[in-house]
Amino acid sequence: MSTLSVALNSAAPILPAGESASLSPAEAKRQTFQRETNALVSAFHREQLRLSNVDWVVTLFLIGVHVGALAALVPAFFSWSGLAICLVMHWVTCSIGICLGFHRYLAHKSMKLKAPAEFITMMCGCLSGEGSPLTWAATHRLHHQKSDQEGDPHSPIREDGWWAHIMWLFPKRTTEVSRILMRRYVPELVDRPIMQFFEKTFALWLWGGGLVLLAAGWATGGWQLGVSWLVWGMCVRMVAAYHSTWFVNSATHLWGYRNYDTRDQSRNLWWVAILAYGEGWHNNHHAHPAVAPAGHKWWEVDVTWWSIRLLRAIGQAYDVKDKLPQGRGADETDMAEIARPETAAA
Ligand SMILES: [Zn+2]
Ligand SMILES: [Zn+2]
Prior knowledge:
Elements: H1 25-43, H2 56-70, H3 80-107, E1 112-113, H4 115-127, H5 133-146, H6 161-165, H7 175-185, H8 193-221, H9 223-249, H10 270-275, H11 282-287, H12 303-313, E2 317-318, H13 331-334, H14 341-344
Antiparallel strand pairs: 1-2
Helix pairs in contact: 2-9, 3-4, 3-5, 3-9, 3-12, 4-8, 5-7, 8-9
The structure holds zinc ion (ZN) (2 copies).
């Protein structure tokens, strides 16, 4: 469900030069669409994970954050204030930023947000360290469209649990793949100034947040408290949030029960629902991706839905899709407009 950066380097052109000259516009468009589809399938295929094709920026960053979290085992770096910052930041970045902002608002348009709420949720998402809003939303829409089929970026059914959990993040992906992802999967978002702003600044928010924690802790109680706030407020919090959201990609396509007979293997898993603020009701979500509440039975608790209701109550969220469609739904219904040749071609 997440990536730090999907596009970093250049690639060969998708359409061989001159090939479309003798084709009708419709046929050229169809062929371009098919080549781009093949490029996406290839980019997220497991065979891309080779030592010569590792995205070292993403990989070393993830290793660094995990190593940093190990510093929490040093008693000198523990503080109750650091633990409190960790818990609050985990909720702010994971539930408000990722679950509410990047996932239900941006990727699925489950609600509309007023400008202040939109800015704050996008900022919280950037502070999670799960990459830019547009890359996150585009990759997630691709997951829904291809779920557990060829082209799914992270299917534990087609590959295995480790691939779906974390390893799919490691291969380097090209700027061409990023361009295709953006144009096909988030065409209505790419030109919005606020999205362009966060596309350019998402990493600065993260690094800035770390510096602020270090400096504030240091100013409050010396360098040891500064390191404590950094270790607990950044590293421990990010590692916990990473695995919480990654379990949605891995565990909830493997274990749990199904309320809906979707075409994928998505499942509802109570402990992921707790860890990931309601996102563990993943079979419900795949059946009705655009519906804002992920819990569809009274006991399927969805903490992120509580925040959406609060935003609606104070007027910051509106047009919230809170009703289940009549009859059994399937994810083809809500994602039908995504990435058809006629809507996706440039
Ligand atoms: Zn899924
Ligand atoms: Zn989704």
